[in-house]
Amino acid sequence: MTSSENRPHRSKARTTLTMLTSIFILSVGCDESLEALEQENNEELSVVSTLEAQESELRRRRDRRAPPRQPVVEDPIVEDPVVEDPVVEDPVVEDPVVEDPVVEDPVVEDPVVEDPVVEDPVVEDPVSYSDPRIQEVLDLPSSPHQYSIQGASDHFLNEAAIVDNTPIDNLDDDHRATLGRVLFYDPALSQNQTVSCSSCHQQERGFSDPQRLSEGFAEELTGRHSMSLINVRYYPSGAMFWDERALTLEHQVLGPIQDSVEMGLTLDELVAELQENDYYQPLFTLAFGDPQISSERVSLALSNFVRSIVSHDSPYDAGLSSNGGNPARPFTNFTPEENRGKQLFFAPVQNGGAGCAGCHLAPPRVGPGAPRPTSIFFVNGAANIGLTDGRGDTEDLGVGAVTGRPQDNGKFKAPSLRQVGLTAPYMHDGSLTTLRDVINHYSDGVQAHPNLDPRLRQGRGGAPQRLNLSEADKRALEAFLHTLTDESVSDDLRFSNPFRE
């Protein structure tokens, strides 16, 4: 063994010896003398020194005998470079330190809950016609009358539908008509509470006035005769008054109330007067849903009632229905005289008739194929019928006073011929007292007014026509006109005075 190979063994021996010594001292814990221990240690060290000297001598002798060594050149070992993947450490991302906000619990005080004061609801009795405020003054049924047309023939209804002037916002309504009926008969609508609408439009007189001129609230006379209200809903244009100054019935019904001669109230005074009467509050509620009183509502209610006054069940209507709607054939329910009068009424002058139907049953629309009415009996528009020659200084200009056009002077609206036997006197000024006077006028009394209707002239621009009717034909024509009276209208409870005596 070479000295270099023994060196680690010697080193190990020394280390081992030292450790054994320490272990021995610690484990045995005896009282052996330190000197003996040191001696042994020195002896070991001496042996080691001797071995080292021998090794050194052997190395020297070997070096003298051996030839010099050629250095051994070994091929260099080229190792592939170890390329280590770079250690990519994930960045240490520290979560931000988010401190929870210090949320202090709110101090919630228990609310002081008081027991609600629950009042018994005030339950109002539903408004009805049994309301004492109504029944104390008015004789009205618990349910309103039905004011829509009942029992009319098809020929009447079909023609009526063409010319009905009822506006969409005031269609037939039983409650409105009932209120309108009360207003129509109430003298509270006049300045001194002495005159009502019914004073000048009497049910038994075809809703007209038997007086030539009507008397107002202060006993002054009106400027014109009171026109019949029968079937006004079927006047084609819807215009009202003799001079057609009101475009609709809704406008017309407020006119007499404000007239200084007729009833003498302003619209504000009218509302205030009605508010003083307890029975109007439930009536307006029934008609409009709430008790508000206004002149507009008065207008709607009055016109709704007036439009309900319809004559459609006369002897003429019965004969027309039984005859298939053909007025030219004799009616079995007519007398010979009445049938003769009907023939005169419908036949044109050139065919030996009086030509009345040419005006009073004129088609509402002019044009080829326009059907000629057989039931409505309205002149289609204002006309001048030659009551005067137009030369008088005080002449009533009629429509001309409204339009300002000279060609309209002396033109007047004509009422329906239905109920005509009850509505005397006749014409806008009440100047013709009886039906016979009217017939006589058309027979040979028409005057040559510049604006005379062409249908009353002998040819275009000619002199006034002369029918020269015989006495028998006059009586026959008068008899026929009476067949246009619907007797049921005169005593219909729906149109009568509702006030208790």
Highlighted features:
501 residues; mainly alpha; Cytochrome Bc1 Complex, Chain D, domain 2; 3 domains; 18 helices; disordered N terminus
Radius of gyration: 63 Å
Shape: elongated
Strand content: under 5%
The overall strand count is: 0
Top-tier CATH class of the largest domain: Mainly Alpha
Domain module tally: 3
- How many H/I helical runs? 18
**What's the overall average pLDDT, rounded?**
85
**Under the CATH scheme, which architecture of the largest domain would be assigned?**
Orthogonal Bundle
- Describe the biggest sheet? none
End-to-end separation: 164 Å
CATH topology value of the largest domain: Cytochrome Bc1 Complex, Chain D, domain 2
CATH superfamily of the largest domain: Cytochrome c-like domain
What string gives the helices and strands in order? Answer: HHHHHHHHHHHHHHHHHH
Which parts are unreliable, with pLDDT below 50 for 5 consecutive residues or more? 1-10, 20-34, 66-78
State the share of residues found in helices, binned by percent: 25-40%
Can you summarize this structure?
The protein is mostly helical. Helix content is 36%, strand content 0%. Helix 1 (3-28) runs antiparallel to helix 2, helix 5 (174-185) runs antiparallel to helix 10 (280-288) and helix 5 (174-185) packs across helix 11.
